[in-house]
Specification:
Blueprint lengths: L1 E6 L3 H14 L3 E6 L7 H5 L6 H4 L2 H8 L4 E4 L10 H7 L2 E4 L5 E2 L12 E3 H8 L16 E5 L3 H11 L12 H8 L5 E5 L11 H6 L6 E4 L16 H13 L8 E6 L2 E7 L6 E9 L5 E11 L2 E4 L3 E2 L8 E2 L4 E2 L5 E3 L2 E3 L2 H4 L8 H5 L1
Parallel strand pairs: 1-2, 1-4, 2-3, 4-19, 6-14, 7-8, 7-14, 8-10, 9-10
Antiparallel strand pairs: 5-15, 11-12, 12-13, 16-17, 18-19
Helix pairs in contact: 1-4
Bound molecules: flavin-adenine dinucleotide.
């Protein structure tokens, strides 16, 4: 009989347990240990509450979770309540599936001002994460800036833009539903340092912005390369860029605007005791497609800044760590000495839920 500890009950943890079951059948016992009292990681606390069909993937994990040889041990923070060395002494193997729950910090003057919120906190707030229930983001302001050009930025912008009626069928928590229903925000800026061809937004999620009840997206076609260049993009990105181009033709007749600010690099947050504006430097692409500043700056008046600029895995004592990539040092998931890592803790915070499945296997 093998005894395996999986640390983390998100997708990577459950795919690992599923793979262990498939491989060893009744000859394995898996303990899935999590710091939270409830399982499923970002499926519960990250995936947007109005995306129930995606959240429904938990049913697959539930099958594994309810089987006799898999046990969920909640409310245990590995590194504080029990050490990796202790676990290595107790189990045949330890699999780190701890994800990447820490926001990459916004490194600029004013980043500590009240009203600057990391996406892990903001998303946790509307998803019922107990540590962020008291976040109380400022929604009595007329404009917000969402920094980032990936799907998390889209989630945040969409949640800020939706009407109460559009949350029917979601599982948004009551405190966020009520606060968002009373929100005064009318303009939501989504900022990317590079251009439309460099976004990391998937077409389905981007397309949704074109069909909101009371909000409409706005783009400046002057930011786009010539339309013929779209043919060079891979099909998913080409579809996303087509959505962006189509946004330009939408009538701006709704109460809220979602403004895409491309080639926009935030350089400072300013305000008297709280966020009042974001200072942005215009950029251009160099020959390596990297954003370089032009020296020209402008201000975006806003009272809320949500940073969606990536995540890091918190280091654990005794586990080698890659500081620059914010993940455990590993070779194809193997750390060594009976220690493994999977999911975001292995690869860093990229890919969809399904990308974590091969890691487990
Ligand atoms: C805001 C947001 C929205 C997303 N939306 C989508 C989407 O719509 N579709 C999609 O395909 N993907 C989405 N993703 C990506 C998807 O959530 C990830 O690919 C996936 O959750 C990563 O799985 P994981 O198991 O590595 O990490 P996680 O899901 O983060 O799970 C890690 C688990 O480890 C636990 N843990 C961490 N440290 C410790 C410790 N020291 N001790 C004990 N337990 C610990 C955590 O509590 C957590 O339960 C989204 C991600 C985010 C951030």
């Amino acid at each position: 009989m093998r005894h395996i500890a999986v640390i983390g009950s998100g997708p990577a943890g459950y795919y690992s347990a599923e793979a262990l079951q498939k491989h060893y059948g009744d000859e394995v016992r898996v303990d899935i240990i999590d710091r939270m009292p409830v399982p499923y990681g970002l499926i519960r606390f990250g995936v947007a509450p109005d995306h129930q069909s995606i959240k429904g993937v938990y049913r697959r994990y539930e099958k594994v979770a309810l089987s006799d040889n898999v046990r969920f041990v909640g409310n245990v923070l590995v590194g504080r309540d029990v050490s990796i060395d202790e676990l290595r002494g107790l189990y045949d193997a330890v699999v780190l599936a701890t994800g990447a729950p820490n926001d990459r910090p916004l490194d600029m003057p004013g980043a500590e001002l009240p009203g600057v919120v990391g996406s892990a906190a903001f998303v946790g707030w509307y998803n019922g994460h107990p540590e962020f229930a008291a976040l109380d983001p400022p929604l009595d302001v007329t404009a917000a800036a969402v920094i980032g050009n990936g799907n998390v930025a889209l989630d945040v912008a969409r949640i800020l833009a939706k009407t109460p009626a559009e949350f029917v069928g979601s599982d948004i928590v009551a405190h966020a539903f009520e606060a968002l229903g009373n929100s005064a925000i009318r303009t939501i800026h989504v900022l990317g340092r590079r251009g439309p061809h460099q976004i990391a937004m998937t077409p389905k999620e981007l397309g949704e912005l074109g069909h909101l009840e009371d909000a409409v997206p706005e783009v400046d076609l002057g930011d786009f390369p010539p339309p013929l260049d779209d043919a060079l993009l891979e099909p998913g990105l080409r579809k996303s860029v087509t959505h962006l181009r189509d946004f330009a033709g939408l009538p701006k007749t709704k109460r809220k605007l979602i403004v895409f600010d491309f080639f926009a690099k935030p350089v400072a947050v300013e305000g008297d005791g709280k966020v009042e504006r974001l200072i942005v430097e215009r950029t251009r692409l160099d020959e390596r497609q990297a954003a370089v500043g032009t020296g020209e700056t402008y201000a975006i008046p806003c009272g809320l800044v949500v940073t969606c600029i990536g995540y890091k895995t918190p280091p654990l004592e005794g586990v080698p760590y890659e500081e620059d990539r914010g993940r455990f040092a590993n070779s194809e998931g193997v750390i060594g000495g009976g220690l493994y890592c999977v999911g975001w803790a292995r690869r860093g915070p990229t890919g969809t839920i399904g990308t974590n499945r091969p890691d487990g296997y």
